[in-house]
Every structure is written in structure tokens, then in C-alpha cells.
Amino acid sequence: MAQKENLHEGHRKRLREKYEQGKEFFKEHELLEMLLTYSIARKDTNALAHKLINKFGSLNEVLNVSTKELISVDGVGERTANLLSLVGYISALKQNPLEKTKLNNIDSVKKLAVELFKGLDHEVLYVFYLDSQKRILGSTMLDDGNVDSVSLNYNEISNAILRCKPKSAIVLHNHFSKYPEPSEADDLATAKLITFLNYNKVTLFDHVIVSGEEIYSYFYDNRIQKIKEYIKNKTI
User: How would DSSP label each residue in 14-67?
Assistant: First the structure.
């Protein structure tokens, strides 16, 4: 028994050291695994981290479901459920400054976009969910840790739509080229997202690409309308 406990402690020490050396490279299950070590003593938390993310879809959702739902998962006790719920609540409080911010013109979008991506060394994508007045209801950040790509997590977006009940959405992501011009991959991702959001009765208002202080707006270049027309004609 003592040998197994030493193995777990050694793994937890290496996990903490890895976190200190580069937490931005941690995958979601590794972040959750580390968090679980603060409520579950002398047990391997890796398998439970995977189980929770597989059940609820993402780390963000694990931190935002009810304690009752968490406790229903084998291996999660009241103490662990309360810890996860508390971290989710504190995280939500931290995000509150953006809530109700209006993204109803290009200046407000540019100001937010340039600030969000300042100092990043890899691509990140945000989906902001808006009410009928273009005020922010919530957001989803997608980050694969890759320098030149980021994938859409439709499960996480779907869960956020259920939670926020938005009328429209704006997508923001960054490029590291000198000019923020969209690529074919960006157009394809935009078309897929428009289709997905339409299915969920949400309109994609704009897709904004950021490169340093420069931005490209699909809406202002009429590119988003052309993609919508292409999708409509393709389905007729």
C-alpha cells in the first residue's frame, strides 16, 4: 500500500512541476486531473478526469454542472463536487466584466479582439454569444495549443448555446501572418459553423480574424453573406 501511495505522490509531484513549467500546454484532462488531487488523497485521478470530461463534454462543462450531477459519477464525492462547483463559480465571476458588453459595431469588436489575443504565441478561437441587442451573454474559448490551427468543438458550443440562449454569435480568432486575410480553411470552418448555428436557431453575425493590431471582418467585407448564400443554394 505504501509503495502505491509513493507512486501516486511521485506522479502528482511531476504533474505540478509540469504545470509550473508550462501550464498553457496542459490539456483539459490534465488540468482537471491536477485539480482533483486537491480533494482526492492517495488515489490516481487521471481516469476520473477522463471520465468526467467524456460524460459532460469539456472541462468547462464539468465545472458548470450541478453538484448533484457530479456526485452521480462514480468516484466523485461531496467534497470533490463542491470543489469543482466552487472553481466553476469563481471562474464565472472572473468573466463577469465582459457580460453585457455590446459588440454592435466594428470598433467595439476590434477593441475586444486585439486585447484578447495580445501576447499569444498560438491560435485561439472565441465564440461570443449575444442577445438581441448584441450584448455578450457568455463565451467559449477553444484552444488546441497549435501554432497555426484550432478545431471547433461543437459539443462545447452546443452546451454553451443551451446555457446562454443567444440570438446571434461572433467568432474571433487570430493569425500570425502579417495580414489577417481568411484562408480556405477559415471559409470552410465559417460555413460549417453557420450551418451548425442555424440548426440551433442562432445567427452567425461575424467572423473576425486578428493579426496584431489589424483585423479582418467577414461581415464588413460581405464575405459572410456570400457564404450564407452559397450554403442556401447548395441545399436547394
Answer: HHHHHHHHHGGG--HHHHHHHHHTTTSTTS--HHHHHHHHHHHSSHHHHTTS-H
Q: What is the distance, to the nearest Å, from the Cα of residue 172 to the centroid of all Cα atoms in its chain?
A: 12
Same domain, 80 and 103: no
What does the alpha-carbon distance between residue 28 and residue 59 come to, in Å, rounded to a whole number? 6
Do residues 6 and 104 both lie within one domain?
no
Closest CA to 117 of 208, 22, 220, 25: 208
Handedness of CA 59, 76, 64, 83 (dihedral sign): negative
Whether 76 and 139 share a structural domain: no
Looking at the structure, do residues 79 and 175 belong to the same domain, yes or no?
Answer: no
* Per-residue confidence (pLDDT) for residue 167, from 0 to 100: 94
Q: What is the pLDDT of residue 147?
A: 58
Range of the domain at 51: 2-96
Q: Is 96 exposed, middle or buried (0-12, 13-18, 19+ CB in 10 A)?
A: exposed
Asked whether residue 185 carries a pLDDT value surpassing 60, the answer given is yes
Query: How many angstroms separate the Cα of 72 from the Cα of each of 45, 49, 56, 66, 129?
Result: 17, 14, 12, 10, 30
Q: Within this chain, do residues 92 and 103 fall inside the same structural domain, yes or no?
A: no
What phi, psi does 140 have (nearest 5°)?
Answer: -125, 130
Query: Are residue 121 and residue 172 in the same domain, yes or no?
Result: yes
